[in-house]
Amino acid sequence: MAETAQPRRITMTPGARRALVAAERLFYERGIHAVGVDLIAAEAGVTKKTLYDRFGSKEQIVVEYLAARDERWRAYLAERLDGAGPPADRILAVFVASESWAAEHSSKGCSMVNAHAEISDPAHPAYGIITGQKRWMLDLFTDLARGLPVPDPERLGRALMLLHEGALVAHGLHVFPAPIAEAREEARTLLP
Global pTM? Predict the structure, then answer.
């Protein structure tokens, strides 16, 4: 599969940072399409002109929102995996980290999954961030599975990814309690 080109990113000024903080909250709480630049500007205490001068378009604000969220998640997960021990423990640590992250940052489910529900066009500049984050997670699970004595680490990586992503969706839907913890226990049954 061909790699998606990295989207253009902007340099953040104080006003752009305030706008991005407001956009992150609003996009996550209400949805990307439901939030306009007027509301972002009002919430951030900046003018609409400032938004367009800094970001150029709402699409660029979405790019910055998703890219920043992805960067924070990767750093958060890296911290938790550093001391997790052997590959099986590290795999389970991904689920523990996701559960902790979700409790703190994601009451409505995964921001990438939610964004994909609104942005399914590969031509959108944020599309590559969404799919890139999910490819990164698949690569992570597959790399960790390669450290285990299993006949098909790629298949195990895909199974772990499916459990993880399904748990994130179930978490956002609030259909039953503790779906990420339940997915972790299911993942444990797949490990040698």
Answer: 0.91
